[in-house]
Amino acid sequence: MKKFNEVDRHIWSDGVLIPWHEATVHVLSHSLQRGSLVFDYMSIKQTPLGEAIFRMDAHLRRLFRSCRLMGLALERDESELAEAILETVRANPGARVVKISVLIPSVEIDVVPRDSRVSVSIAAYDPVADILDRLPGEPVAKPDVLRLHLERHKRQRREDIVSPEAKVSANYVSSMMAKSKALEAGFHEILLMDAEGFIAEGPTANIFIVTSDGFLRTPPEQRVLRGVTRASVIALAEEMKIPCFEESISPDELFAAEEAFMTGTSASILPVESVDGYKMGTDCPGSVTVALRERLIKIERGEDPAFESWLTYVKEAPA
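^ thats the sequence. predicted structure below, dont judge the formating
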């Protein structure tokens, strides 16, 4: 088995590219001990004009919003981090994703750090070759359709404690054990519910349903993470004249849906085959899901001039 410290990549750390194995943080750092690390995750697409990062500007806006919600003071602006991301991707050929992390590296005793200075790291890598292939056990193939478990007993995180809009590491702890049990039971993913008992989201993906009359529905953004792919689907629906509504969805409405799919940077658009063994609609994937997914793939490949602004090319595009 390959070792992690043998990964031949470099990570951008506070303005300097350093070898992969040197990108470390103290075990007693505030972000590790208190869960205060803010991050974002974006995909690198292959196009006829070369590699391009999908909706990098939207991801950076979300990163800065998450930092504001968590009180992390970023000294660099969006343009500086955008150039740092491009520099990192150029330094790591074959990378498929970018992960940017903002953390408090100082060793702290109290919950509120005395040294609140933040550190920024950017990694560009291949999650399969650099990560999954180095883990013990057989690799798990990515499913084409999802079997979901509705986690009824675990309420979604409360926004009066940590905003669900913040992409902060602490927000992912509550779903870890629930998803682990669901995987053991043969499901691919879980759906969480909010404090009022409405459908919220998956641990790393947003949910959409298609009603019997062809309407697209998704939970309101105030109660979920503001997924970039989620926002992309909403924009595509408007352009494609598919009625789309951001509103609360009850479990009964979920089970009555004709189609359902999840969205995320890793998932893109993945159709839902069933929830707790109950089959969704008559066909999977359904026609609305297929239409949106095909349009999004076309955009990601740089084949749709109407949405060319969603791609940030890593190298200068030829004139």
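Residues 146-300 form a domain with the D-amino Acid Aminotransferase; Chain A, domain 2 fold (CATH 3.20.10.10).
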